[in-house]
Amino acid sequence: MQKAKDHWQLGLLLVLVFALWSTPVSIPLKIFVVFLHELSHVIATVLTGGEVLSLSVSADQGGVVWSRGGNRFITLSAGYLGSLLIGLALLLGALKTKIDKILMMGCGVVLLLVAALYVRDSFALLFTCVTGIAMIAVGYFLSYDINDLILRLLGLSSMIYVPFDILSDTILRSGARSDARMLAEEFGGATVMWGGIWLCLSLLAIFYALKIALKEPSNLTWSRN
User: Fold this and answer.
1) How far are the Cα atoms of 14, 22, 36, 62, 102 from residue 18, in angstroms, in the given order?
2) In the chain, which end has fewer C-beta atoms inside a 10 angstrom radius, N or C?
3) For this UniProt entry, which segments traverse the membrane (predicted)?
4) Average pLDDT of the residues in 207-217
5) pLDDT tens for residues 30-86?
């Protein structure tokens, strides 16, 4: 009972995300998580010595990164798990630190940098630029608590979307062209095997992140600027 009192705002936000998940309201959040997925491919490619040619996200929540070189096993594995880890980092950053405004503006800067370096098509360019500018403005002009709430929303959205996407793309629709399908073709094993491994790892990451997040009361007081 005490846990429920200490985290009722977080629970309410989670319920709202679930309730609105299949409505148009959630589409920008889903596209943002897809962007995190593609960004994770970009980071993995660059860190393993590859070259990123372009990144794109679409209005129907699709995304693609064109690259050459790098470690294919790492880059293919990075999409789902990387986007989840970024989302959980945003959630924990909101809950455990006082740098919410800096985190928000930092996210905006990252989006604008990615747009300048890798985005070529009109929708992806519009989404990354508008979202990036909006995040910088929110971080600069709005209060600590508003920034904290938005970061929680982004983190929870990633926490919900990624496991569902892994289940849908790699297990329920194992014949679809997915990161797990390409990993199976290039390194052996079955699509559902890699999807199952990623799903287990994602649930484990969520479990430990929530264990850390819920150690102390998380309710906002709405008193800080």
Assistant:
1) 6, 8, 20, 21, 28
2) N
3) 73-95, 102-119, 125-142, 149-167, 187-210
4) 93
5) 999 999 999 999 999 999 999 999 999 999 999 999 999 999 999 999 999 999 999
Angle among Cα 166, 81, 209 to the nearest 5 degrees reads 105
State the Cα–Cα distance between residues 167 and 153, nearest whole angstrom: 22
CA pair distance 146, 139, nearest whole angstrom: 9
Note the pLDDT of residue 121.
95
Domain that holds residue 58: 25-213
Q: Look at the chain and report how many structural domains it folds into.
A: 1
Task: Give which of 52, 50, 21, 55 is closest to 38, Cα–Cα.
Answer: 55
Q: What is the pTM of this model?
A: 0.95
Dist CA 94 CA 155 (whole Å):
9
Domain membership flag for residue 15: no
Question: Is residue 224, in this structure, part of any structural domain at all?
Answer: no
Closest to 194 measured CA to CA, from 184, 185, 205, 186 = 184
Does the residue 12 lie in any domain?
Answer: no
